[in-house]
Specification:
This protein has 140 residues and is mostly helical. Among the domains are: 35 residues, no CATH class; 38 residues, no CATH class. 31% of the residues lie in helices and 7% in strands. The protein has 4 helices and 2 strands; from the N terminus they run αααββα. Strands 1-2 form a two-stranded antiparallel sheet. A hairpin with a 4-residue loop joins β1 and β2. The chain is elongated and about 95 Å long. The protein starts with a helix and ends with a helix. The model has no long low-confidence stretch (mean pLDDT 78).
Length: 140
């Protein structure tokens, strides 16, 4: 039993191996967008610019927006009010918010999409009729 522990102790360090020391990609191929780029895309649609990593020249500082702010700007699922492909003109891109159509989608509606009808107000006179009557009243 004593020899077994000694043998395991001697062989155990040899079984450990390190990963490769070379980087997974050259620096010019590992460029990434910053969190600020994500916030700007969500706020204004700005394209952003991929940047290669460079070592900081000073300690931590302001970084723009936080990951919590990115999440608050990102769209959330809304099954009750989400547009469906049949409600968007064929070929037009939109961001789907429902479980069944999440993410970038393409509309499939053909023909004329009818707008929501305007509620009746009870108005019986058009503005044109009022203008014509006022001109008659104040004509010289």
């Amino acid at each position: 039993m004593k020899y077994k522990h000694i043998l395991i102790t001697l062989l155990l360090p040899w079984s450990a191996q390190a990963g490769p020391l070379s980087p997974p990609a050259p620096p010019n191929e590992s460029a990434m967008y910053s969190i600020g780029d994500l916030c700007n895309r969500l706020d204004t649609g700005a394209p952003g610019t991929k940047k290669t990593f460079t070592a900081p020249t000073s300690g931590p500082g302001a970084t723009g927006c936080t990951l919590n702010e990115v999440m608050s700007k990102a769209p959330a699922k809304d099954n009750a009010n989400a547009a469906q492909p049949s409600e968007v003109t064929a070929g037009k891109k939109y961001w789907g918010l429902s479980d069944s159509h999440w993410g970038l989608q393409t509309g499939t509606a053909t023909g004329t999409l009818s707008p929501t009808p305007v509620a009746k107000t009870g108005q019986t006179t058009s503005y044109r009729q009022v203008c014509d009557r006022l001109q008659e009243m104040f004509a010289y």
